[in-house]
Amino acid sequence: MNATEQKIRVGHSPDPDDAFMFHALANGKIDTGDYNFEHELVDIETLNRRAFSGDLELTAVSLHGYAHLTDLYMLCPCGASMGDQYGPMVVAREALSVEDLKSKTIAVPGTLTTAYLALRLCLGVDFDHVVVPFDKILPAVREGRFEGRPIEAGLIIHEGQLTYGDHALKLIVDMGQWWYEDTGLPLPLGANAIRKDLGADVIRDVNRLLKESIQYGLSHRDEALEYALQYGRDLDRDKADEFVGMYVNDWTLDFGCRGREAVATLLQRGYQAGVIPMHIEPEFVE
Q1: Which residues pair with 154 in a beta bridge?
Q2: Which residue, among 206, 207, 214, 224, has the nearest Cα to 248 in the 3D structure?
Q3: Which residues pair with 149 in a beta bridge?
Q4: DSSP letters of 170-212?
Q5: What confidence tens digit (pLDDT) does each residue in 139-194 have?
Q6: pLDDT in tens, 183-216
Q7: What b/e readout covers 64-101, taking b as 16+ CB neighbours within 10 angstroms?
Q8: Are 139 and 168 in contact, with CB atoms under 8 Å apart?
Q9: Residues near 129 by Cβ (< 8 Å), separated by ≥ 6?
Q10: Would you tell me how many other CB atoms lie within 10 Å of the CB of residue 128?
Q11: DSSP state, 160?
Q12: Using CA of residue 47, residue 52, residue 55, residue 60, what is the dihedral sign?
């Protein structure tokens, strides 16, 4: 990094879709001009919590997490993870109804994740839960315990949506499908948020470079997928390709009008349910 470069610290999850999205920025595939991007790979709940201190200039956040961060960050219109009739899932060892889940102890990947918010909205109650690292939830459900706590079901994100069957677990409810049936909208799960104090010029530049990185991955799919595979726990190439296709697509290039409507609807419903403490009007980079 030379004296004229501005450092942009980027936080994103160590999973295939984020790796695919950031491949070009992480591996020098596009010209970043006067900006030097430093990448930190951290699970999404940690990024949600860390964003309260505002130490990262650009960070992946859950849309639920963003609802608590609007004084520090605004949303990039690119970089979204949208579940279009699919999304986080609740799985269990035995068949259960959605009504049954209200009285079960459920492993969740974090209480600021959009998956958690969606499940609260789906169940309509504050259910008993245990926070478990996202990559430990499937084993916890299979074994029925995590660190001494009983686990009766699990809320899974990332590649667990494709691999839960390998653990002999049953799908109880798909949050993306439930949300679509209830609203007719895709479920906005994650986004990239940029710190407001960077100023308009830097914000526009960083947003542009993020979009270029996403476009590069989509245009050089095999190359970007090869890089992303190193983060594909339990995924072979075909499943990794399927997973990336679920969450890096046209929605990722731009939320669009329908995606923005979905974000506003999610935040409004979260507020009405008492999960989000205030009414939030999402703010996007123009």
Answers
A1: 91, 107
A2: 214
A3: 146
A4: EEEEEHHHHHHHHHSS-EEEEEEEEEGGG-HHHHHHHHHHHHH
A5: 999 999 999 999 999 999 988 888 999 999 999 999 999 999 999 999 999 999 99
A6: 999 999 999 999 999 999 999 999 999 999 999 9
A7: bbbbbbbebbbbbbbbbbbbbebbbbbbbbeebeeeeb
A8: no
A9: 105, 106, 107, 108, 111, 116
A10: 14
A11: H
A12: positive
Say if strands 153-156 and 89-92 run parallel, antiparallel, or are unpaired: antiparallel
Residues in the chain: 286
CA 253 to CA 245: how far, in whole Å? 13
- Domains of the chain, each with CATH number or no CATH: 6-82+188-272 (3.40.190.10), 89-183 (3.40.190.10)
DSSP 9: E
Q: At which residue do the structure tokens 């130490």 appear?
A: 55
User: Can you read off the two tokens belonging to residue 82?
Assistant: 């949208």
Which positions are catalytic? 158
**Residue found by looking up tokens 């899974």 in the block:** 156
| Single pTM value for the model | 0.94
